[in-house]
Amino acid sequence: MPDSSAVPEWLRWAGFRFDPFGPLDAAADPHLSEYLVGHEAFARVWGEGISWVFAPAGGGKTALRISVMQTCWIGQETNRPFPIPYVPPFLAWGHARPSEEEHLMALTRSGARALFLAMAHRPHWFFRLDVSERQDIANLFQWNLSGPLSVYLNLCRQSRQISPLREVLDPTFVMRDPPDEVTLQQWCDELESALAFQPAPPPAERWAHLLAVLKMLGFPSVYILADGFDGAPETIDNPMMIVDCMRPLLHRAEKWAQDNVFLKAFLPTETFPLLAEQFPLLLSDHVAVIHWTPDLLAEIIRRRVYVASGGNFGSLDAVASPALRDVETVLARSVMPLPREMLVLTRQVIEEHVRREGAEGLLTGEDVEAAILQYTQGNLLLTRTAR
Amino acid sequence: MSAVQLLPYSPRLFVNREQELQMLEERVQALKEGRDGHGVLILSGERGIGKTWLRSHFEHQLSQERIPVVRLDLKEYAGKDPAWAVADILQRVSIETGGPRERLGADLAEMSRTVFRHLQKFLQQQPLVVIVDHVYESDWALLPLLEDYLLGPLAAERRVLLLLTGRGRLYPWKNPELSTLAVPLGKPELEPFDPLFTKDQLKRQAPSQAHRADEIYELTGGNPLANYLVAAYSLDQAVEGLLEPVPEERRRTVREYLEALCVLRAFDEERIPDMLATYYDDDSYRQWTYARSRRVREELIRWGLARWDAEQRGYVMDRIVRQLIERYLQTQKPELWRRLHQTAYQLYQQWANNYPATRERWLEEAEYHRQRLQEYGSLPSRSENISAADRRIL
After folding, report:
1. H or E element at residue A52
2. pLDDT for B393
3. Which residues span the domain enclosing B265?
4. Under an 8 A CB cutoff, do A75 and B301 touch?
5. Measured between beta carbons, which residues in chain B are less than 8 angstroms from residue A310?
6. How many angstroms from the chain centroid is the CA of residue A374?
7. pLDDT mean across residues, chain B
8. Chain B closest CA to A319's CA: distance in Å?
9. CB distance B176–A71 less than 8 Å?
10. What is the CATH number for B130?
């Protein structure tokens, strides 16, 4: 098995600013949005409309969803869409046929979680509110976070930073410029003092309350980023069950859209024909079906190479010997048609290279052949899993 | 050789670009009337294609309509600390939109918040056009900060029209408004003039040379800056004019690199040493390391004179720069031009022989150079000709 310790050194030698093939977990990749914007599917999802992304399992749905979420959080203000990442809580429900009420409750909880994290990063959104608006916010958190608001505020106070909150509430949440300690402390204190300890209203009212708070804060629209519907044992291989599970949301989607609340669903490809048949009007526009062809897989690598090389070059050909051309296509034809597999194989080529030649030198046909051999022997994925 | 003077913009010397100006005008009217005129426009294109003149003409029209404009030239921030640069830019935007002149905040986030708080009030009274020049030539350490604290939030404002100009590497913005949703002015880049506009341009800018319009167009392909330079100066000076963005202390060296590489359709670090060895008639260049060649390539990219080309799978020189420099070599230094083509031809032949997997590709390149030499009666020597078997492949 190749030693990969010299890979960072080779990447530097070859002119990469960072390792674009390293993070296999989309949420952990700080450059995800840079790779994905420009992707046709992203363009379909972004904007004021109900939209759909259909892709095979492991085909990049979650990466796309996270990228949309990160794009919503650019800037300091509330002039961009508010994203609610919605992964149905099958475990909490104990079943996969939720009612509308259960969906609304789960959606409100996800929205409150996202707003709490966002506001912890942008306390000035809170500071500029009047007393009753502050009370609305505090109640929203008190009613809809999984635990009492004070628990989260104390976590913040004790650690004097936001990262523990992120770990508890949503590790995929990324927002730059957290506040300094003093401002964070002030936010915790003022938020807590705004709490009125009123009894929680029923789910439908809580959802309406969340939407009213978001409007009051100035968000022009809300994106419901629905993902993970194939995450329950009942839905994993059953597209009809997924559609059934979504049905209450789908009945609401058009009415929501009139109020600038847009459902954006990231679903397995198999659900597309069922939804198209049962909800033809909802699926008349903004539909992206991701089918991973070798050309698209090759493009993933080219885009990553372009971003990581600071725009200096857009293909591994730039760091390959003249004996090797169109490296990405050669690799794309040798992998299972999934982005993750393509990244694994590409990195393997570099690992093979540093094993044979050290931390310098152009990629060769031998590196590619050895990597493909390793890949097809299946060693690679097994090793990755073991790590 | 007297220094080349580039013609400064003047409304009466401006020609063409009706479509682009109409598009800009429609956006501005919509902005003024509170309709959907906001968004991001991109103005890009090769060296000398007329980005600066079109931008200046647009600014001239905006000033006549009394539309507020903030223009930022990122070239001014080259080599500066990115955080300092963005702080300075935020301060300028604040001042020009009636916000505070100082004490905007302790960090960029706070500064950005202050600027946008005042900007909201400003936009309630009037729309705003923000022009950012030399975007794509800028340092990639500056652009993410500029996106987060200024351009991204600006792009979401409904009464702001943002015009980004530049050439070279397109930056992978995270904001869809700045990338996929941005609208290019041009198809998708600004295009060269046709023969009629070339003639019109010369009549206004170099009237005594207007009779040469066809001959000039044939050489420049209608690039407006090249049209003017070739009309007003010698070919040698015209090339100097095109290289004006390169600092004077580097210009001579950069020009030599460009002369050495201009015969190639695409180049990379593997091809640079052979071409420089022939250009300088010095075999020691063939011993250059990859890292040393890369510095050459990086410098050409830095000045926007070359870029990676997905189709060629290599770096290509800016079209007009390559065209004028090669013509200069061909007419003023024909022996050097011939030797450079000969070197390229031999290099590709050698690669075709050594690398079976990519043989066809290198034979194609060899054939290109053989044909160029043949066109000008300088066929490679008999032993260097492509074999009959290889011809069949082609």
Report:
1. strand A51-55
2. 46
3. 249-393
4. no
5. 140, 169
6. 30
7. 91
8. 9
9. yes
10. 3.40.50.300
User: What number of other Cβ atoms are within 10 A of residue A327's Cβ?
Assistant: 25
Cα separation, B282 vs B293, in Å, equals 15
* Kind plus residue range of the DSSP H or E element containing A263: strand A261-268
Match 């309350």 to its residue by tokens: A209
- Tokens in use for B387? 């074999």
Mean pLDDT of A222-238: 92
User: Final residue of a domain: which of B144, B161, B184?
Assistant: B184
Q: How far is B198 from chain A (nearest CA, A)?
A: 33
Joined together, the tokens standing for residue A200 give: 């929680």
Domain boundary among B151, B184, B217: B184
- Say if B240 falls within a structural domain: no
Is B47 within the bounds of a domain? yes
Record the pTM.
Answer: 0.88
B173 touches chain A (CB under 8 A): yes
Predicted confidence (pLDDT) per residue in B171-221, tens digit:
999 888 898 889 999 888 899 999 999 999 999 999 999 999 999 999 999
Contact yes or no for A149/A192 (Cβ under 8 A): yes
Q: What whole-number distance in Å separates Cα of residue B386 and Cα of residue B353?
A: 11
Among A70, A79, A303, beta carbon nearest to B157: A79
What residues does each domain of chain A span? 7-24+293-386, 50-285
Q: Do B358 and A322 touch (CB under 8 A)?
A: yes
DSSP strand pairing (B314-317 vs B306-309):
antiparallel
The identity of residue B83, as a single letter, is A
Which chain A residues are Cβ-neighbours of B137 within 8 angstroms?
A: none
Give the pLDDT band of residue A38 (cuts 50, 70, 90).
low
Contact check, Cβ <8 Å, A323/B357: yes
Determine the average pLDDT of the residues in A264-278.
Answer: 95
Residues B267 and B137 in one domain: no
B297-324: average pLDDT = 93
Number of continuous H segments (helices) and E segments (strands) in chain A = 19, 5
